[in-house]
Amino acid sequence: MTVAHTNSSIEQLLHERILILDGAMGTMIQQRKLDEAAFRGERFKDWKKDLKGHNDLLNLTQPTIIEEIHRQYLEAGADIVETNTFNSQTISLADYGMDTLGYEMSKAGAECAKRAVEAVQRAQPGRRCFVAGAIGPTTKTSSISTDVNNPAARGAIYEELVSAYGQQVRGLLDGGADLLLVETIFDTLNAKAAFFAIQQAFASGARRVPIMASVTFIQAGSNRGVTGQTVEAFWNSISHVPLLSVGMNCALGPKEMRPLIEELSQIAPIYISAHPNAGLPNPLLPTGFPETPETLAPQLREWAENGWLNIVGGCCGTTPSHIKRIAEAVRGVKPHALSTVEPYTRLSGLEAVTIRPDSNFVNIGERTNVTGSPAFAKLILAGDYEAALSVARQQVDGGAQIVDINMDEGMLDSKAAMEKFLRLVASEPDICKVPIMVDSSKWEVLETGLKNIQGKAVVNSGSFKEGEQKFIDQATLIHRYGAAVVVMAFDEKGQADTLERKQEICARSYKILTEQVGFPPQDIIFDPNILTVATGIDEHNNYAINFIE
User: Fold this and answer.
1) What value does the mean pLDDT take over residues 219-240?
2) What are phi and psi of 64, to 5 degrees?
């Protein structure tokens, strides 16, 4: 099935009705009560680590069982089955000493699901079902410190995540996945690395398929995720990705997830999915979860009747019986009509910032800039990052809606300083609640900054000063990293000083960004150059007038 076929086929179904996602693979595997030998199989019988509970390994050692579970969900009414590949990438597999098996395990997982789908479609001619390659969050985090004594410590870095996800994506695609689902997102920076890897794979010639996203919020009654982002801030952070759908899964049951999915359905202008747990885990219950098929299905039908859903299924604790009841409950209910969202500039830290036509000036705190603040530069050069953080905090407390961070100083390792400071900022909710503007004249420093920000940032800046192709290449990456961009009126000839030159360069950059790179117009911010006035030099006399014009 080609990407065009996959797209048109699933889009047609989503337009017609609510699609059904499967339930919990882990729950079904646990019901099998497999022992250590069953997990190991013949190939891994002498493996040096315990393997019981390593569910993804069953794609290689017990593929018939995995295929049968997929078939049970399909027979219960699922239109989409997720591959058994939640942890099938280098980072998570390292826990078992199997970090070289990410590609193989992902490919095998997709093949198991594909065989189940093909068997059901042969038995039921005309039925259309899809395999979603499941991409989990890994066992590491790139936004949260892993050392109480070092707020800048991280369990994983962006490059490691992109590499690990890249292998998994290739395996899933080679195994026949029709969709890619980045799910159970608890760290938005991890997810951005996954989306980067997917888009990188597509750009390098891999088969293109629709992309789905699903976030998890762990606090019942809270509007914040694991890293502290609100629902809207999360959406702004990943809105650059050409997604088929966005949704929520895991951690919460239907009662706790209800207000969150309602909010998401109103702010994201794409298809909406939900697959909650069968309630909050309760080890005192025989099933471990309170929601039965009979109690879960009516709640999800209400969500559907409220117009919030395009795709619905179950996460932890849900079985084929749950999925069968859900499918019956939402049958005939009109799917969610895509929300209309105004094309405003939408940024985020832990919280969302929207720049509307009626917004006042947006205040950018620029004292965290070593080229503009001697006091801040002195702190950074002395290695006093704690005091430097207080400068950022003062900026936010003083009303800055965006904080500009610049580490361009000849005596500094600018990349290392940018990375360390951004990681420390991420540990301070009262600072990182606002979006970050990564500011540098060096591309490698800008890129380092983007690899350490989970929200939707602004890059300051892009220009034609190194030529058009370099501008296109860097803008493509900025968009893939998920940032807005400041574009300077600066080209191969130098800074624009006349009204005509300013207009010419801004128009040229706008055309290239929107038509070639794919930048949304609302993510482009122009800097038409404020040049020095009252210099006494005749040719400078019109600088102020030209800028105002």
Assistant:
1) 89
2) -65, -40
Residue 96 and residue 351: Cα distance in Å, rounded?
37
Q: Which of 278, 273, 281, 316 is nearest to 297 (CA)?
A: 278
Length of the chain: 549
CB 320 within 8 A of CB 73: yes
Q: What gap in Å lies between CA 216 and CA 273, rounded to an integer?
A: 12
Nearest one of 159, 160, 30, 50 to 98, comparing CA atoms: 50
> 54 and 96 in contact (C-beta within 8 Å)?
yes
Structure tokens at 142: 């790139």
Distance CA 194, CA 142 (A): 12
DSSP line for 372-438? T-HHHHHHHHTT-HHHHHHHHHHHHHTT-SEEEEE---TTS-HHHHHHHHHHHHHT-HHHHTS-EEE
**Peptide linkage before 106 cis (omega within 30 of 0):** no
Q: H/E element holding 184?
A: strand 179-185
Give percent helix, percent strand, percent coil of the chain, each to the nearest 5. Answer: 45, 15, 40
Burial of 12 (0-12, 13-18, 19+ CB in 10 A): exposed
Cα–Cα distance for residue pair 439/369, rounded to 1 Å: 8
State the DSSP H helix or E strand holding residue 31, giving kind and residue range, or none if neither: helix 25-31
SS (H, E, C) 53-79: CCHHHHHHHCHHHHHHHHHHHHHCCCC
* Nearest to 236, CA basis, from 438, 434, 472, 476: 434
* Amino acid letter, 303: W
Report the first-to-last Cα separation within the chain, whole angstroms: 54
Per residue in 271-329, pLDDT (tens digit) is 999 999 999 989 899 889 999 999 999 999 999 999 999 999 999 999 999 999 999 99
**Cross-strand pairs, 215:** 185, 248
Q: Quote the CA–CA distance of 509 and 449 in Å, as a whole number.
A: 23
DSSP, residue by residue, 477-527: HHHHHT-EEEEESEETTEE--SHHHHHHHHHHHHHHIIIII---GGGEEEE
Write the pLDDT tens digit of every residue in 110-128: 999 999 999 999 999 999 9
In single-letter form, the type of residue at position 193 comes to: A
Report DSSP state, residue 466.
T
Question: pLDDT for 50-107, tens place per residue?
Answer: 999 999 999 999 999 999 999 999 999 999 999 999 999 999 999 999 999 999 999 9
> CB of 278 within 8 A of CB of 250?
no
Residues 459-492 pLDDT 10s: 999 999 999 999 999 999 999 999 999 999 999 9
